[in-house]
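In the previous chapter we treated chains in isolation. Here, by contrast, the input contains two separate entities that must be folded as one system, with a combined length of 623 residues.
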Amino acid sequence: MITDLLFYEPGGGFGEFYGTDEGRINYLASHSGWRGDWTQILAGDFGGTALSDLLFYQASTGTGQFWGVDGLGGISLLREYTGWRGSWTQIIPGNFGGSGRTDLLFYDRSAGTGEFYVTGSDGGLSHLTTHTYFRDSWTLILPGSFGGSGSTDLFFYDAAAGEGEFYTVDEGQLTQIGAHSGFRSSWTQIVPGDFGGSSGFTDLLFYDAAAGTGEFYTTQNGQMNQLRVHTDWRASWTLIVPGSFGGSGLTDLLFYEASTGTAEIYATDPTGMHLIGQHAGWRTSWGQIVPGLYAPLQAVRLHLKVLFPSPTPMEQHLADTRAAFLSAWIRVNVGSTEFLDLPELTNIKINCKSGYGDNITGDVHELYKHRAGVGSGDLVIYFIETTDPPYGGCAKYPGDKAGAVVTSNHRKYVLAHEIGHVLDLNHVDDTDRLMDNSGKARTATPPTLTDWERVKMYASDYTRNL
Amino acid sequence: MAVTMELIRNALDAYEPDYDAAAGWGEDAVPLLAEIASDQDDSIAPAAVHVASLIGGDRAAQLLLEAATSSRDAIRFQAAAGAANLPTGQAEEVLAVSLDDSHSGVRRAALRSIDSLGLTSDMPDGIADKIKALATSDPQEFVRVASDDLVRRSTTR
């Protein structure tokens, strides 16, 4: 399952949601005015939508807020709690005995206390167990499958003592299954994932920033065995985020370096790692990057070829299309954007009488030759000035070079409408619906899709399952 | 059914207008189309020009001639392209304007209309001169190539 990302900037109170696509990231939405001192944000199933919900914890006020996400980068409050301890050091998600939603372990280092809670619908919480014998020196607690019990197990790391302990959890009760000493006290971050170790057990990546070292370990019933060591890593990675970002099935890793505003995404395999995405120009102030599922699990991937700037901002085209496709549970990814200086193809003759399909003009044949970076199953959208005769868009494409043109003669939702054609939808006469071609004023925002249209979209060769 | 402004606006505001149906609106629709085409801010103005070219007649030809001098590129483009649907004499008036257009897409549309109308076998001197000039000095290669092709295939009146 694909992993999306929420970026949080504490100082400015900004949050931005992105989808991911084979090492690329796709902007979904941004938020400002968030509190500037959320201590921890974590994703899970807290009783909201089928996508990841979010828990925001603010230590300074003892506030916890559960939010649902809408698939487009929007969020809505499920429930707010006040009066929480201000001294929770870490909140750990997992399956600790609840009903299938994400349960929570709250750890208070100063008090040496851990409390397990199960979650209900809409952010409801029920206390499960309290433990008052926790060490007051755990640096980090990680969830994973370390004992194979079916519930979420826990790994505790004590940097000062150089120790690590594994526990299984059953209905909020802890049982130790392994203890290790002699750990470095300088591990900066420990990342759980599937890095090619024992099947059914969570592997661990240990990152030591000062040494520029990364060490992968496999675990099994509380035991650890080294998989491989990397000694040439940057010493300046700020955050390492695990997820599924387009690699081969094992856990991929996003490395974020705040000082340069850069990031690299690596796929992992049993023998090593390989780069699948590089990014620059990111904010240097992201404080938390929260992996989760924030957009639908089906996708179309677009490559945007801009021959003439659309009078409508590209982000608006994409936002409209995403909104129109949300009810079909399809996300809209952008694989690439290319600006083409092709004046001979900016105003073209077109044959769009039947709306979509083959039977194309010479101009369209020439236009669709420009496919740099386009992969199998991808769509190309050509933004041009105008067509003869004039259309808002047209989805007549040559053979298997699927795509559409969108003209500067803007119609709201035209990009979604043309992609709808490519996904095998026909015109209808119903102003509520996306494929309406009556020209009458729309009566639904976003325009709707019927169940049958959604089925056709799912079945299209151009809709991919993430 | 009487063609009303509402019917025209709805039909032309479609993502993919049905121009075959619009061509049957008849000459009574042309004044309404002219009203739309003259509004520089109207998103359906280019479509109105195109439909007028399909309906034809003196008023439609006048609409295209006025559209050929519009300040909006998309409207001038449709005038040049739509001239291919007019009788030769009316089309030549429009195309003489469009060949001098500042927009390369409009000039190329005019060249295509000339070809479509079969004017290469009986080209007025004025238009032939303009095409010869484009063939040698147009700033856009694709216009020079299209012009040169017409010149080589043309016989003048």
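Chain B touches chain A at residues 9-17, 19-20, 43, 46-47, 50, 73-74, 77-78, 81, 104-106, 108-109, 112, 140, 142 (CB under 8 Å). The domain at 5-155 of chain B is CATH 1.25.10.10 (Leucine-rich Repeat Variant). Compare these points with the single-chain example from earlier in the chapter.
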